[in-house]
Amino acid sequence: MEMAEEKGKGNPIRGEIEKLIEAGNLRDLLYKAGELHGHLCSHLAYGVKAGYIAMRELGVKSRGMEEIVAIIETNNCFSDGIQMVTGCSFGNNALVYRDFGKTAVTVAKRDGTAIRIALNPNFEGSREKEYPEAHELFDKIVAKREKATPEEHKRLMQLFAEMSITELNKQTDELFIIKRLEIVVPEYAPIFDSVKCSICGENVMKTRAVTENGESLCIPCSNRGYFQMDGSGISVQEGGVRGK
Predict the structure, then answer these.
(1) Residue pair 218/231 in contact by the 8 Å Cβ criterion
(2) For the segment 100-134, what is each residue's pLDDT rounded down to a tens digit?
(3) Distance, first Cα to last Cα, the chain
(4) Alpha carbon distance 33, 101 (integer Å)
(5) Which domain holds residue 204?
(6) Are residues 164 and 210 in the same domain?
């Protein structure tokens, strides 16, 4: 597939990644994603492959300036593969997180042209039978957080790495359900002024400041509740976070 639309407009900072995408070198893209993620695993591989498919199908390159947007529906390992390959991240405001709990992503251009790639549910349940040893160790070490030996930890990482390469090489139509879409793309991130918290003295984005008795307070100093994204998704937390 020719990347004609954005040809010559690549980002030299992402030069190595763009060359890997153009060459179809999924293995090395996976290794690059592993540098961010900390280890190799099957869902990281799915994110890498989904990101690769989206970039090729849309004919785009990322300059990290919100010219493309990735809307992810999960905060599992898949999302790190998406971030590495597409260049869309929370820090550059091109990654949108929707807490749907689905291993899926929609990558869109500014004109609304988009592609949604979701892990095939018929395929997703097959891994337990295909990789019984890895599943058993995952259940013990990760799911149940039971005490494991260093050898078991090492073996799990080895199996994860082997699985990731195997899964990466599977047929696209076996792994994913892919749909072409036209969507309304989120606006470019606005720039907000900062104000100084009257209690701690730290600067806080004006839209996140709380006004009490005519003074600006940050959320921790105001003891208000706040939103938090962690391994469980997005949740509302009670106030009193300062000092924790």
Answers:
(1) no
(2) 999 999 999 999 999 999 999 988 777 888 999 99
(3) 50
(4) 21
(5) 194-237
(6) no
